[in-house]
Amino acid sequence: MSATPRHGALHALMTDFESPSQFMHACEKVRDAGFRHWDAHSPFPVHGLDDAMGIRGTRLPWIVLVGGITGFSAALLMQWWMNAVDYPYVISGKPLLGLPANFPVMFELTVLFSAFACFFGMWGLNGMPRLHHPLLANDRFRRASQDRFYVVIEARDPKFDSEKTRAFLASLGGAAVEEVREIVEG
Amino acid sequence: MSTSQVHDAWDNTKDDPTKPVELILGGNDFTTITEKVSDIVLERKTPRAWYIAITATAGVTGILFLMIAYLFIKGVGVWGLNNPVGWAWDITNFVFWVGIGHAGTLISAILFLMRQKWRTSINRFAEAMTIFAVVCAGIFPGIHVGRVWVVYWLFPLPNNQAMWPNFRSPLLWDVFAVGTYMTVSLLFWYTGMVPDLATLRDRAKGRVKQAVYGALALGWRNSHRHWHRYEKAYLLLAGLATPLVLSVHSVVSFDFATSQIPGWHTAIFPPYFVAGAVFSGFAMVGTILIPARKWFGLQDIITKHHLENMNKIILATGSIVGFAYATEFFIAWYGGNPNESFAFINRAFGPYAWAYWTMVTCNVITPQLFWNKKIRTNLTVMWIMYIFVNIGMWFERFVIIVTSLSRDFLPSSWAYFRPTPVDILTFVGSFGLFFTLVLLFVRFLPMIAMAEVKTVMPIADAHSGERRSVGDYHGDIPAHIRDGGSH
What we know:
The structure holds two protein chains of two kinds. By secondary structure, chain A is α+β, with helices and mostly antiparallel strands. Chain A is built from five helices and four strands. In chain A, strands 2-3-1-4 form a four-stranded antiparallel sheet. The longest helix of chain A has 27 residues, at 60-86. Chain B is mainly alpha-helical. Chain B has a single domain, classed as Formate dehydrogenase/DMSO reductase fold. Chain B is globular. Chains A and B meet through helix 1, strand 2, helix 2, helix 3 and helix 4 of A and helix 1, helix 5, helix 7 and helix 15 of B.
């Protein structure tokens, strides 16, 4: 970590905007130009940007559903096995598995497992934690978490052409287009 | 301090239905919000008052641990417990602290689902308070078990007796409810904080701060493809936390309601406990928020409008609590059970009448004063009211637990409970722990959810020509109505 990272191949081209509405219109243009490996970075989720970028729904809710079903079933199985099979509790002649009395724990574990699935599912789908990324090494990019709005087109996009894409980004009306380089640790 | 230009004179509590309420005052934009909140952590010199305060609270926390050590050495006899009062301050404190936590989840999850935009200024703070309150709550059931060396029997873990816990016991439900609540609250709080931790990472100057905040931010780079899943996850967590928070105090109330003790065995307990929890929690949030916004100069982000809204919730939940007290009495009479009616007459006129009427004064009369707009927008008055509510809600739990136990079915075993100094110092010590955690939080973590606050600012709207999604309940006024039909 001590040495300044040396810069490698071109990772992406980047421009940035001051206002959410310029940013959104720029995103619409990038979407319509047919790029696939590009992204928009903003200090907060800009309302309406999903459509402007053409992002489709996430499968996260399904992961959470699976987590919830797992928690519910695990709680039922655990209580049945522990209190009715492995160590039967006979209390006032009541049935060994009494669903009403077992329901609170089933509910709590449903919520617990769903929340874990949601938390880890979201970070997993987002590819995080990832502490090492060319954008994070770029000083200008630091304001993405503060007050500026960035549009980044990656070099691996099939439609990427360093000259044409640079001209296209410049035409969007943002600040000067900048090259983002891959990090090469020295 | 440079915050003197921030005036309490800013008043956004005027009711004008033709205009959206401005939630962020003082002409702030994205840059100033970022600077204001992150500079508290990164740039500003730690005030000397902070060092004095944390020394004091850490000292009080020390008393808590000394008392716990003494308890472990001597046994629960060092408390004022007797027969029949086997639960007293320990469980009162447990229920009190769990209840305090409920306001944080209400603000972060329920108000989120209801699209109450004003929550963004206070949710981080309230969620932090939830976690710290649950930490304090968790101590009491852990230490009151008597044989602390087998406290792991609370959990369904394999043990040398080949026994499992009894899942029909509400005390075990409690373990699951409070454990899940703590875990989910932490996940929710941390998820909400990641974008702000990234802001701190990007603004930090020292290597250590960059590394620590950088690691905590998980490499968040504000990508909208990430925001998209993040927002979905946040919504799902809010949807999960909402029934969860309602379940937690319901399950806590089952500890009482499923027993046969007169005064406990009532079906009203779950909703009554949940309303009381939210009531007490909002009072505690307010107790800390009013001084904090002043000390850190955040009056333009946590405005009077926010505090007034909180007071309205205190009024609503306080009225539910008052109504529940009345219902209990009505049912005790209407139910025709002599033990039940005795329990309630004894509550109000028996040996603990002083506690009962303290509770009624603080919890029933105090919140009703918030019908008056002058009272609910006056900072000093509302802070005093919060203190009353805090006291009243502690007494509510004390009254429920101790009046019923001290007068059980057998008059020969009746006894009066008196706390010992160990009881009192343990409870005082738990406040030390709570405030120590709060002080660490305001010093090292972003106490305002910057990214969320930015979304409710008028300049955040990318459709600013067509519609203006600002403000609070007057928000989203279509442009053609707002501008008189020219659109």
